[in-house]
Amino acid sequence: MRLAQRAQGIGASPTLAMNARAKEMKKQGIDVLSFTVGEPDFNTPAPIAEAGIAAIREGFTRYTPAAGIPELKEAICAKLKRDNGLEYAPGDVVVANGAKHAIYNALQALIDEGDEVIIPAPYWVSYTEMVKLNGGVPVIVPTRAENGFKLTPSDLKAALTQRTRAIFINSPNNPTGAVYSRRELEELVQILVPRDVVIISDEVYEKLLYDGATFTSVAALGPEVKDLTVTINGVSKTYAMTGWRIGYAAAPRALAQAMANIQSHATSNPNSIAQKAAVAALTGSQEPVQQMLAEFARRRQRMVTGINALPGLSCGTPEGAFYVFADVASLFGRTLRGQKITGSVSLAELFLVEAHVAVVPGAAFGDDRYVRFSYATSLATIDEGLARLHAVLSEVR
Ligand code: GLU
């Protein structure tokens, strides 16, 4: 069977694929320690899960409005006002099947064939592929470790063309953990607004901040910025709800309406039960979020110290999210158990096969000199994983 061009150019999401591979090896009885997928290892807090159970018991199991139930849209508007200083009305909000789907909807509604979308690298693996699936052209703009992996105004200016339609801003960033300050964001939007570039602001790691880092929502920088911004968020990372699949976009009304229409044909509403659970997450006690954050903070410290003690690896201290992006380039060209380390993919493969430690190669995020460790996993796993890596890396020649 002949597949469409768009399907021929696309592989599975590398984060999900690496996670699936680790799980498959575990099923075969191999004791793999996984630092792959960015997925909190905590259970969904009980009051949220109970709201889902209650929804089933009450028979809240039918179609809902395609863009989400009014109750959830109102809870999202209240959250955006309370946490981010943003005024959105329920008609500006589209609840989707995860933040990933909300981004996809936005691209569907915005991108024409050949439109360019600026993606600062390192980037989350799905941005580039989603742009391509929608006929757009990803324009990758590398950032530098010495700038904290943040896009600079001059690099942004150099990347803009007549065809620039949109840009991704992802703060806190996956995979680097970089958090843009308000000032840094202001400098970028001052360039973007006069050019009418739409800003897709992926704020899904908003609550995962350390060492006093503060979060600024891009749309909060002014009304003219808000008119060009799609704010993306979801409950997966903040409330340990990855499997429930609830994300959302808040956008100027015409764009939100277009996204809602598109979604109504593609998937209809997001899961009715999960929507009720998301209402409980956003309106209930935020104490569980603080508890999870405190645990992530402990793990981050252990991870950063441990990685910097590994032969050949180094990393900075990320300000947000739950990833460490470790520089592994000093190992390239060297040999481990008879195999040459040629890049991040071959190193990740060696980690998996020789140490039974799964990480995601930096190449998947647009920078081959790194590998990504997710520390959304227990301290015991972190300690054991780092010990295994130390043992194999000591054999690098
Ligand atoms: N965003 C998470 C990650 O980067 C979840 C998996 C995915 O959708 O890529 O690991």
Please, could you describe this protein's structure?
This protein is of the alpha/beta class and 397 residues long. It has 2 domains: 5-43 and 288-393, Aspartate Aminotransferase, domain 1, CATH 3.90.1150; 47-283, 3-Layer(aba) Sandwich (Aspartate Aminotransferase, domain 2). The chain contains 14 helices and 14 strands. It has a 7-stranded mixed beta sheet, with helices on both faces. β13 (360-361) and β14 form a beta hairpin. Bound molecules: glutamic acid.
- Chain-averaged pLDDT: 97
Helix content: 40-55%
How many DSSP-defined strands? 14
Question: What's the N-to-C terminus distance?
Answer: 47 Å
Q: How many domains make up the 3D coordinates?
A: 2
Q: Give the CATH superfamily of the largest domain.
A: Type I PLP-dependent aspartate aminotransferase-like (Major domain)
CATH class of the largest domain equals Alpha Beta
Biggest sheet architecture = 7 strands, mixed
Strand content: 5-15%
Cα gyration radius (Å): 21 Å
CATH topology of the largest domain: Aspartate Aminotransferase, domain 2
CATH architecture of the largest domain: 3-Layer(aba) Sandwich
Shape: globular
